[in-house]
Write the structure tokens for this entry.
Amino acid sequence: MLLFRDQTMKLKILLASLVMLFTALVAAQNTLTFKNQNLPATETWNFVCEQYVLFGATQLQIAKTDKGGLLKISMPANDEYAFIMGNLYVDLADGATLICTDKGFRENKQNQMNSFYVFSAPEMNQLKKNDILRVRFQIVSKKKKFGNQYGYFTAQNKKEYFTTYYGTHDKTNPTAQAIKALLTTQTAP
């Protein structure tokens, strides 16, 4: 009888461990919603944008699509008339620059500017081989007085404003590694 209790206890522990592992794996999958579609995506990265006074960080996330990829860039906004628009330039570690043309996929809701830029399949292949160094973009606002800050901005791939030279943790976001992992994952049919 004692042997039976030990086996059921081991079985319960094993089952509980499997449930916790499965829950962690499901929660670890990131998605990006675009045009009412949930796309598999990387985690959201914070890039430092020193020129933007309202908030010093720009959030970037890259999703996998059927024809390549999608970049979401987000920043807080002071008013509903401010948007990230125009061409966006992605500078890579190998010296290449990807030019993303504005397709008009943008929104400003809940004091957050979100813009979406499309990557082709060859551009996604470049992104999986090279880390993103910086992103250059423009904020446009219809309100010129007492509105949002506008102009040209650069977001650097740095996790924090201030770091020490002898710090042991990563100072940049490993974008190439995350994009490579994203592109190797299979999407559900």
Residues 18-28 have pLDDT under 50 and may be disordered. The longest strand covers residues 82-92.
